Amino acid sequence: MVRAWHIDESKLDENKLELSENERELVNLEDLKEHTGVLYWKLNADTYNEDGTLDEIRKCRGYTYADEIEVSSKTLPNFDVMIKKFASEHLHTDEEIRFILAGKGYFDVRDANSDDWIRIEVVGGDLIILPAGIYHRLVLDKDRYIKAKRNDVKGSFLDRMENGSANMWGMGFSTELRIPFPFSPKISP
Ligand SMILES: [Fe+2]
Predict the structure, then answer these.
(1) How many Å lie between the centroid of ligand 1 and the Cα of residue 135?
(2) Where are the domains of the chain?
(3) Are 171 and 165 in contact (CB under 8 A)?
(4) From CA 103, how far away is CA 126, in angstroms rounded?
(5) Burial of 123: CB neighbours in 10 Å, binned 0-12, 13-18, 19+
(6) What secondary structure does DSSP assign to 137-170, as a single string?
(7) Helix or strand or coil: residue 66?
(8) 59 — phi, psi (to 5°)?
(9) Would the pLDDT of 174 be above 70?
(10) How many CB atoms lie within 10 A of CB 152?
């Protein structure tokens, strides 16, 4: 099961991505959905092609695009530049959909009310959908490797400026062809 917890930016450093159990203030999936709009499902990274679970979600949400990205120093051109970009706070004008095939990373998302960070740890089999308009970033773990399927290409990438606006989740970004949030496919979350 995916793990998510509140993080205090002032106490973070690159060597301390993994907080101890005592230091974590865990967030359950229901609260995560309520405070950020993030949706999550656990699929089987080895059998998702045959069991049809990813296809079911794609069909229900109207996704027509798919590609794969392998974030590693060996396969991704301009690796250092790109991981810096992923780790900078930004939003998109459309959903960000990631199905993790291998490796590990952390999606940090802003709580829509408090603007605090919530860190979501993702590994193989995790499918995560960040809603349009939510500020977020992707931080790699110490192994600096993650491989994922993407289903989104339409939305613009907007960096958060200093004194930037709050999350714009739910503020009228295009959702045509999408099943309205919340959405529950017939597979276990
Ligand atoms: Fe993003």
Answers:
(1) 8
(2) 34-159
(3) no
(4) 11
(5) middle
(6) EEEE-TT--EEEEE----SPEEEPPTT-----TT
(7) coil
(8) -65, -45
(9) no
(10) 18
Which residues have CB less than 5 Å away from ligand 1 (the ion)?
A: 96
Is 90 annotated in some ligand binding site? yes
Report CA(49)–ligand 1 centroid distance (Å): 25
What number of CA atoms fall less than 13 Å from residue 63's CA on the CB side? 22
SS3 110: strand
Beta-carbon contacts of 31 under 8 Å, excluding residues fewer than 6 positions away, are: none
pLDDT digit string (tens) for 117-157? 999 999 999 999 998 888 899 999 989 999 999 986 555 56
Is the model's pTM score more than 0.85? Answer: no
The token duo for 73 is 């120093």
For the 34-159 domain, the top CATH level (class) is: mainly beta
